[in-house]
Amino acid sequence: MNSTFKALRSIGSEFARRLYAPIAIIFSITTSLLLVGGVLLTTLSAWWWILVILLMILALIFSTILIITGIIIRGLRPPQSKQQAIRVKSFVDKIQGLADVVSTPKVVILFRVVRDMTTQNKSGYLQTISSETLSMRNDFRDIIGGFATPGGS
User: Fold this and answer.
1) Which residues contact 115 (CB under 8 A, 6 or more apart)?
2) What CA–CA distance (Å, rounded) separates 90 from 139?
3) Is there a domain that residue 153 lies in?
4) Is the residue at 89 inside a domain?
């Protein structure tokens, strides 16, 4: 597999993981609170069980979607050495910092990275961003170089 494509997969999966984790935590807490509240309402009247059953069905559906999404994100991430993972996280931190300065939403950045992965374009979004700043260009080259070597150092 192409080292540039592996680097894009690695960066894309890191972005997706950073978006996924807060959503999963917020969903878990909200669902737990709603279900506990629903069960407490059932002590007032048995009719509240209808609401609790609907909440349980919705929670099951959304939990399944979240679990499948987490598996896909984990499956996208190519095998990485510890050094590669540190480089990728550092690169994503820099892109997020740059995006915060220009107020680009993280979802838009993730969309552009995924588009780069699907089109396998040499001059995609990450290539453009990394060529605009010298340090990011060198970081992006190091990440690609790390995937080009068999040991991945």
Assistant:
1) 124, 125
2) 8
3) no
4) yes
Residue 12 · residue 76 · CB < 8 Å: yes
* Residue 142, domain extent: 3-148
Measured between alpha carbons, how far is 153 from 41 in angstroms, rounded to an integer? 57
Total domains in the chain come to: 1
Q: Where are the alpha helices (DSSP H) in 103-132?
A: 106-119, 125-132
Nearest to 106 by CA among 7, 28, 21: 21
Render pLDDT for 30-65 as a digit per residue (tens, 0 to 9). Answer: 999 999 999 999 999 888 899 899 999 999 999 999
Rounded percentage of the chain residues whose pLDDT exceeds 90: 32
What 8-state DSSP symbol labels residue 149? S
Distance CA 54, CA 73 (A): 29
7, two tokens: 């680097």
Amino acid identity at 43: T
Q: What is the DSSP letter of 75?
A: H
Q: Which two tokens stand for residue 76?
A: 């996208």
Q: Which residue type, as a one-letter code, is found at position 73?
A: I
User: DSSP 3-state assignment of 124?
Assistant: coil
